[in-house]
UniProtKB/TrEMBL annotation:
Ranges of residues in domain PAS: 250-315
Record keywords, A-Z: ATP-binding, Cell membrane, Hydrolase, Kinase, Membrane, Nucleotide-binding, Phosphoprotein, Transferase, Transmembrane, Transmembrane helix, Two-component regulatory system
Domain (GAF) ranges: 380-546
Transmembrane segments: 47-72
Source organism: Streptomyces cinerochromogenes
Membrane topology: Multi-pass membrane protein
Protein name, UniProt field: SpoIIE family protein phosphatase
Lineage, uppermost ranks: Bacteria, Bacillati, Actinomycetota, Actinomycetes, Kitasatosporales
Annotated segments matching region Disordered: 1-37
Oxidoreductase is among the record's keywords: no
CDD domains in alphabetical order: HATPase_RsbW-like, PAS
Superkingdom: Bacteria
Low complexity: bias regions: 18-37
Stored Pfam families: GAF_2, HATPase_c_2, PAS_4, sCache_3_2, SpoIIE
Amino acid sequence: MSGRTRWPRASAAPPPGTRGSSDPSRGRGPWPSRGRRLSSSLSVRTLAAQVFLLQALIMLVLVTVAAAALVVQGRYDAQQNAEDRSLAAAESFAHAPGTALALRTPDAAARLQPAAEQARKGSGVDFVTVLDRHGVRLTDPDPALIGTKAQGVGRAIAGETFTETFHGRPADAVRAVVPVTDASRRVVGMVTAGIEYANVSEVLNQQIPKLLGAAAGALLLATGGAALVSRRLMRQTHGLGPAEMTRMYEHHDAVLHAVREGVLILDGDGRVLLANDEAQRLLNLPGEADQRQVRELGLGPRLTRLLESGETATDEVIPAGDRLLAVNIRPTAPYGGAQGLVATFRDTTELRAMSGQAEVARGRLSFLYEAGVRIGTTLDVRRTAEELAEVAVPRMADFVTVELLDSVLRGQEPTSAVHEMRRTALRASRKGHPLQPVGDVIRFVMADTPMVSALRQGKAVLVSDLRTAQDWRAQDPEGAQQALDYGVSSLITVPLRARGVVLGMVNFWRGAGSARFEEEDVAVAEELVARAAVAIDNARRYSREHELAVTLQRNLLPVGLPEQDALEIASRYLPARSGVGGDWFDVIPLPGFRVALVVGDIVGHGLQAAVTMGRLRTAVLNFSSLDLAPDELLGHLDEMVTRLDTQGDATAAAADRVPLTGATCLYVIYDPVGGHCTLSRAGHLAPAVVDPQGRVTFPDLPLAPPLGVGGHPFEAGELDLPEGSRLVLFTDGLIENRGRDIDEGLELLSSAIARPDRTPEQTCHALVETMLPGHPSDDVALLVARTRRLAPSCVATWDVPFDVEAVSRVRREASRRLADWGLEGTAFATELILSELLTNAVRYGAPPVRVRLLLGRALVCEVSDGSNTSPRLRRAATTDEGGRGLFLVSQFADIWGTRYAARGKVIWTEQTLDSTAEPDPWALLDALDI
């Protein structure tokens, strides 16, 4: 079937009596019966055999003619090649610098014979002969010919160079004759070079078998190809004869033009081979579309590009005029046809129109789903408002503004005053817009504006065309005009409500180039704002609770470091990502200029952890007021934790509590008199000690289980720290995280604090910069203290004999020391205090008795003895002979107290130096019963 003529259209039914008729008596449908197919097959086979013989004969003639032509061409080429080689050899020897000079010498033959032989062998010719100007041979490969005269060289004697096929003696040859001239252009001799004709024919004879073999191979290939073509023809026709092939063609053509689907067949060059009636109608093709290029049919750029590309397409929807066509394209080559393609077209305009609404609805659902995923990713009110604006622009609006109540931004409950809000988020698809920036206060005071109407009704308000609407201009006519000039044309304003309470307002704007808002857009806007309102309200509640927790924790942690002279201290507290944790630290001044350092860690995070930390810190402060040793204090703390957790397990709210058990604590007491340090820890990391030279050590201290575990006694370790040493106390959040273990953290900490010239404040800064990321996963408490010593001149010590008479002597010596310190004004009160305490120690205590005076920012008087009996303040009766001493001490001293040592006790008093204590005279009289 030729692709260059239009297929004829067949009628729907063949005429009666035609072969292949659909009459049941004549077979099934248009296909021939078995008998007819057998006879048709025989005729096709005979035709194929005749075609095969004709093709074989034609190929034999063509191959014979081609072989003869190749022989003639080969003979010509061989002779031409011989002439070229002979001429090149003769000219090279004739024009050689020594040839002309050698011809003038008497022994020219002897001189030229070796050179001629060498030239003959080098050029590959059969002979190179030198002749004198009379044609007599001077050299020749055959010595017998030297001296004989050559034939046919007359033209060379006349100065002409020529090539020829020579026939004569000594042999037929292809030769070249070149004259040899002197400087004056006179011929002094000749050079002939050539190849014998027998050698030229020999080369050709060697090529003839190859040519004949190639011709025979070509003939065999052509014959085999003809046989294959005949066989393929038989296979493709399935044994059908011409009448059956015609009937099948007519049937297929009828079906092709009757289907309600456009069919377009193109060849490999993009020319139309066939277009059925439906394709003509759908594509509005011109009357004569056959053999025209696709680009000439006016199908539109997209469809033309798709057809020219030849790519496979499946239900590709492409507009064609006022129709939407579903296009399917398949190449014809994989199905046995020639290179090209078949394209089918279905009209899907109505289906597309009906599915358009579903597509729009699906797009809106997809948009709302995406908004639900993207809005509320953080528990931050401002960021949630920004996410709402980012989601809506540009998919729903060109500009979006979000205003929230100030109380909502602060995390408080929203107020009823909803007519004043603060712009919290703004998103625009273009720059240079006239809308008020983020941070401005937006007031809704005009009752007729869409915003106020939306707040009053509690639902969205649509203003489809802002140019014709007047109510929205009432509040700010100048700003409204600027918005119109910029191109803002449509508005949806939606109140942002959660739990029935207004949190803010969201405005959606569209500008020039965008379709105006419709009623369907209002439902989408309301749904979007409703989802955002829930996220904003959750963020507001979280902000409120987080602020409460942070405030509580801030109030539970030390507000500032107390004044003391024993240590130079710097501290840091860094909350975790959650913002609230259970780590804490404390600095507690103790009597005798001693200082207690405390660092602890509560299990868990959040508000409950902060409350638990406050309870534990309060307990430590209370126990430290008893001036207990570190191991005793942790023992009491452990008992308290166990008791509180045991009581808490029985309550209904136990599931919401953070347990105290598992908390860790490090308690350190530093005495500046001798630089002595006592430490005890419950499940906590040991502190780092940096000596004045910058060497870092981690002392091996006794380790007890965390608080509340029980079953193990607490022990204390002791250190003597030189002045200028640094003591670094920290929680595990400083050195341990997901990226490193404790050992790596300790090594990094050592390198960060190893410099000896850093102050505690610089040490804290270096540790935070080196050890912690921007937002640590665990909270961190850090305490750095550099030690100081009390000067020896500010310490006075007396060992007192266990005798009442020694009291007066010690009192006098103490008075002299006070005079040396320039404290004569406190001598009377100090002598009285010392006398009373020392007398009580001798009368009611046990040896050894020692007195110590310490001078710092206050004057401290300490009297120790070996008894564990603690005196107590009481009011003496009129009949009592004693009992008034401690009362006098309490009146003259600012504070006083008792602490227990490993053996015995110490009663101490402290007097300020800026003023002398003046006791109440009436109280003294009452105490002395006067």
